[in-house]
Design a protein that fits this description.
alpha+beta, Ubiquitin-like (UB roll), 5-stranded mixed beta sheet, two-stranded antiparallel sheet, 7 strands
């Protein structure tokens, strides 16, 4: 079981603050693809505007979208506000 915690715009886009995935392991790219599948605006969850942490460690410090997430892990996804 993999727990997804969604914050900010990610929570709003998905319509839930958390999701449980029953898979034993998934790559981060697969998790993002699953989340985008049912969004009205899939562009909300692109790598350009989200931060992803696995067990509190930012995924770019791991293997980015190739990071393997295992059962028992918690993935936190938060959108980043951009300004100009």
């Amino acid at each position: 079981m993999i727990k997804l915690e969604l914050l900010g715009g990610a929570k709003k886009a998905v319509g839930s603050s958390s999701i449980i995935l029953e898979e034993a392991s998934l790559q981060m790219s697969e998790i993002l693809m699953l989340l985008r599948r049912n969004l009205k605006e899939p562009g909300v969850l692109t790598l350009n505007n989200i931060l992803v942490a696995v067990n509190g460690i930012e995924s770019s410090s791991l293997d980015g979208t190739d990071t393997v997430v295992e059962s028992g892990d918690t993935v936190t996804i938060v959108t980043v506000a951009h300004g100009g």
